[in-house]
Write the structure tokens for this entry.
Amino acid sequence: MFNKIKILSIFLIFSGMTFAQSFSVQAKIDTAEMFIGEQRNLIFEINQRSDIQVISPVFADTLISGIEILEHKSDTIKSKDNNSLTVKQIYTITSFDSALYYIPPYQFINGNDTILTGNLSLKVLTVDVDTTQISENKPPFDIKSIVNAPFNWELFKKIAIWVIPIWFLIALIIWLVIRYTKKHQPKEQTKEEIKRSAHEIALEKLNVIRNEKIWQQGRSKEYYTQITDVLREYIENRFDVPTFEKTSAEIIDSLHFAKKEYKESISRLKKILSDSDLVKFAKFTPDFDQHTRSLNDAQDFVSETVIKEIEEIQEENTVEKL
């Protein structure tokens, strides 16, 4: 009776351990033998509940001394009820030294539960060499040197027969296209067209300003800005003096070489620029007469400084016609 109770107690203890254990691990190798340089798979198969995490051993590039790890991959299979998992840790291993290798147990941990894998072994074999074929008269052969393949003239001729005419045809087409394009390009009409002079452009723009009469809409600042911009452009084209980056005073100073010939005209320009600065920067509001006078003075300045420019343009057009 006592023995039965004892056996039942032991059975209950082991049964409790089995049910308390939340995972199991099995380690195996594809085969127990391989030749030097061959590859085998070391597989750790973990069966666990899906709600736990099992800590596996971590390896670098070697499993043990003499066995190298080439690749590691993992595969997970869920049960149909999603209550358990089967995780496979697959390590591709190889060895280049012949020996019988002992692979020790490895720990897999979940909380307080630790499982050790079973012992494994792997025998690495060398390739047998038939030494009976080696003698003083027949030494082992060395590695052969690189052999240069002979030039294939037949293939070269076939390629040349097709490639050279094709390239010649492509070059001919390109040459014909370029020649046709140049031949039918519109010729420059510089000799046919008479250049518009700076004073013509300026007077045309001033007439547009006169017709728009934007100062009557209370846009005096914009009105004077338009007038001075036309004059700045005219001065650059007429006297070759940069103006758009200069103040009014700097523009007048830049025309010092023309003060003797166009004294009154430059005084008129100075008055226009001064009135424009007052309107734009001092918020001065000119009356009707001053608006009209500024525009008239701008047209007079252009007309009074145009004589030499007209003569130069006429001479230039005469030279082009010749």
In short: Residues 198-321 form one domain. Residues 4-20 have pLDDT under 50 and may be disordered.
